[in-house]
Design a protein that fits this description.
tt1808, chain A, two-stranded antiparallel ribbon, about 25% strand, alpha+beta, 10 strands
Length: about 200
């Protein structure tokens, strides 16, 4: 069953017996975004049509910001774009983006994934979270059902970013959402998540 077949979180929660809760757990950590990056992003948002297709959203808003934060962690983490993730017939597909541990064997080797990023296509966050949670369950199983690990999920339409995490059989959705117009805060949250991903190496 492809990830996109899960149309809401309820389907995933019921199928895999996951407990749902909400709280604010993300932390805005200090991060310095280059003036060049901020100017480029502002130019894109003001001069280009960024919401006319899912490709425009991903290429102009989501991926550039992920890449900018990833560059601060590139010695330990790998940013993958549209890399297939297949566990079994119930959990398979191609996540938009994911963050995984960087392999000592080089950039071609896929290691354990810790952060899944899904575009909210047509601003449909309900379907986006169904897909994202299914991807998190697949990642958890591929990582050996290590219930000590915390896996992170993001659903975004480019402008609005929502966050969640899966620990064992419990999924927690962050109560607050963040907007790209508050770039310093959003960048700080992403930096926090990337730091948290690195903490999972020893779990």
């Amino acid at each position: 069953m492809p990830f996109a077949s899960y149309k809401n979180m309820g389907m995933v929660l019921k199928k895999f017996q996951i407990i749902y809760r909400e709280e604010n757990y993300v932390v805005v950590t200090p991060v310095i975004l280059s003036d060049y990056f901020q100017a480029e992003l502002n130019l894109v948002r003001t001069e280009l049509v960024t919401n006319n297709s899912e490709y425009a959203v991903c290429e102009n808003l989501i991926y550039p910001l992920l890449k900018e934060i990833w560059k601060l962690h590139k010695e330990q983490l790998m940013l993958w774009s549209h890399e297939p993730l297949n566990y079994d017939e119930d959990l398979s597909g191609v996540p938009d983006y994911l963050i995984a541990q960087k392999s000592p064997l080089g950039k071609l080797v896929f290691e354990q994934p810790y952060l899944m990023v899904v575009e909210a296509k047509k601003d449909n966050f309900t379907e986006g979270w169904g897909q994202c949670l299914a991807e998190l369950v697949a990642a958890q199983k591929l990582n050996g059902n290590n219930f000590d690990q915390t896996l992170f999920g993001i659903v975004s339409n480019g402008e609005i970013w929502e966050f969640g995490k899966l620990v064992g059989q419990q999924f927690t959705k962050n109560s607050d959402l963040y907007a790209i117009k508050e770039l310093d805060k959003l960048g700080g949250v992403l930096n926090y998540l990337f730091e948290q991903c690195k903490l999972q190496f020893s779990c």
